């Protein structure tokens, strides 16, 4: 779906020596490689240590674009240390290898990528990804995939509370919700309607250097 956007900036990326991949079996664009064949051909053995010999905690792991508190989106440097620290948030909150985490958040933001997907990789949990949030399908997905942990931003929970009430509102296996920005009145209504879910509310910023969480529940 980002085919046109990729082709528009591809010459600049190639000049900078950046490799571009499609998560597909074939690539329709010259200069862009298909990633799935490489993934399928990858060995099960761990990568040789020499491939990461120069990687340290302060090495750049990725850039995440964020508008921050003002202005246009800008690239925030995510170091290996910050990646590991943010990905460990799930473990701090009690995320387990047998958990199934459901996230509808975009993976180009820290919450979905580092906390959601990264947290699952960190503990070995299962991650269920949905392309776009749907209030009407949210709990149906949770039941279908045996979801035990959900990820949210505040407005997402408000949308869930505003859906028509159903007799099976509490018929799910979700035990924990991890996210940020939920208003107090929405928090109370969510627990009243959907049951005793442990809510772990945090505050942080992609470009920041500190965060807060109610880690005691």
TrEMBL record:
PROSITE patterns: AMP_BINDING. It catalyses: a very long-chain fatty acid + ATP + CoA = a very long-chain fatty acyl-CoA + AMP + diphosphate; tetracosanoate + ATP + CoA = tetracosanoyl-CoA + AMP + diphosphate. InterPro entries: AMP-binding_CS (IPR020845), AMP-dep_synth/lig_dom (IPR000873), ANL_N_sf (IPR042099). Belongs to the ATP-dependent AMP-binding enzyme family. It comes from Ptilonorhynchus violaceus. GO terms for biological process: bile acid metabolic process; long-chain fatty acid import into cell. It comes from the Eukaryota. Residues 49-212 form the AMP-dependent synthetase/ligase domain. Keywords: Ligase, Lipid metabolism. The keyword Lipid metabolism applies. One of its GO terms (cellular component) is plasma membrane. This is Long-chain-fatty-acid--CoA ligase. Gene3D superfamilies: N-terminal domain of ligase-like (3.40.50.12780). Pfam families: AMP-binding (PF00501). GO terms for molecular function: long-chain fatty acid transmembrane transporter activity; long-chain fatty acid-CoA ligase activity. SUPFAM superfamilies: Acetyl-CoA synthetase-like. The keyword Metal-binding does not apply.
């Amino acid at each position: 779906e980002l085919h046109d956007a990729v082709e528009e900036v591809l010459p600049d990326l190639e000049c900078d020596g950046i490799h571009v991949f499609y998560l597909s079996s074939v690539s329709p664009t010259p200069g862009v490689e298909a990633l799935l064949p490489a993934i399928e051909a990858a060995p099960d053995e761990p990568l040789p240590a020499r491939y990461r010999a120069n990687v340290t905690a302060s090495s750049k792991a990725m850039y995440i674009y964020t508008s921050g508190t003002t202005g246009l989106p800008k690239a925030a440097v995510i170091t290996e240390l910050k990646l590991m620290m943010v990905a460990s948030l799930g473990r701090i909150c009690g995320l387990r290898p047998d958990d199934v985490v459901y996230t509808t958040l975009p993976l180009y933001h820290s919450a979905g990528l580092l906390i959601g997907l990264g947290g699952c990789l960190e503990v070995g949990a299962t991650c269920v990804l949905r392309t776009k949030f749907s209030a009407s399908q949210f709990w149906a997905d949770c039941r279908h995939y045996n979801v035990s942990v959900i990820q949210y931003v505040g407005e997402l929970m408000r949308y869930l509370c505003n859906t028509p009430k159903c007799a099976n509102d509490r018929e799910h296996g979700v035990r924990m919700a991890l996210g940020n920005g939920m208003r107090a009145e929405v928090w109370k209504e969510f627990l009243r309607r959907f049951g005793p879910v442990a809510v772990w509310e945090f505050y942080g910023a992609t470009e920041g250097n500190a965060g807060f969480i109610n880690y005691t529940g």
